[in-house]
Amino acid sequence: PAPETTGTVAFQDDLDLGVTRAVLDHELPTLAICRGMQVLNVALGGSLTQHVVEEDTPHHNGIHSVDVTAGSRLHAIVGAETIDVSSYHHQAIDRLGAGLSVTAVAADGVVEAVEHSRADVIAVQWHPEDRHATSATDAALFADLVDRARKRKETR
Q1: pTM here?
Q2: pLDDT tens sequence across 97-108
Q3: In 103-128, which positions are buried (b, 16+ CB within 10 angstroms) versus exposed (e)?
Q4: Which residues on neighbouring strands pair with residue 84, listed in sequence order?
Q5: Which residues have a catalytic role annotated?
Q6: Cβ neighbours for 140, distance < 8 A, ≥ 6 positions apart
Q7: Cα(120)–Cα(115) distance, rounded to whole angstroms?
Q8: If DSSP codes are grouped into helix, strand and coil, which group holds residue 6?
Q9: Spatial distance between the Cα atoms of 21 and 146, rounded to a whole number of angstroms
Q10: Partner of 138 for a Cys bridge, out of 113, 128, 145, 152, CB 3.0 to 4.6 A?
């Protein structure tokens, strides 16, 4: 890992990868957030940039805009092509994992959201829990997750 990576726990990766694989195998409705998106990508054979060097986009601790791909599930949820997000991460997707498509990017090209082609998974690099009470687009992500879970329960 990069020298900026600190406080790692030896078994955390194994646990997170196992949970992620179970989510994919069972096609559970999921909203993966920050590390969750990174683990999803790695579980699907992708790789990570070990340390994002900040220039004009504050990834490590700030609010910045992301461009959302028109026609994506994310776009249908947030209802906008540009949204502001709360961000604090230093790793990011490098090589995209199998079955994932990029659905949002920051101005500097950092991947900010992905969707899985088969499983009911949407993943975001930002922290929608930070501003869900004041940001309609962040709140919409959680409302969508609840809706997807409810629909899955009703069809089982």
Answers
A1: 0.90
A2: 999 999 999 998
A3: bbbbeeebbbbbbbeebbbbbbbbbb
A4: 65
A5: 34, 127, 129
A6: 77, 78, 79
A7: 8
A8: coil
A9: 21
A10: 128
Q: Three-state DSSP class for 23?
A: helix
Instruction: Please give the biggest Cα pair distance in the chain.
Output: 48
Domain count, the chain: 1
**Least confident interval from 11-20, 34-43, 45-54:** 45-54
Answer yes or no: are the C-beta atoms of 41 and 100 closer than 8 Å. Answer: yes
Residue 22's nearest CA partner among 3, 39, 47 is: 39
Neighbours of 76 (CB within 10 A): 12
Angle at CA of residue 92, ends 49 and 40, nearest 5°: 110
CATH code of the domain covering residue 56: 3.40.50.880
- What are 41's two structure tokens? 């990508």
Residue 8 covered by a domain: no
Residues 6+ apart with CB under 8 A from 115: 72, 73, 74, 100, 101, 103, 121, 122, 123
Strands 121-124 and 30-33 turn out to be: parallel
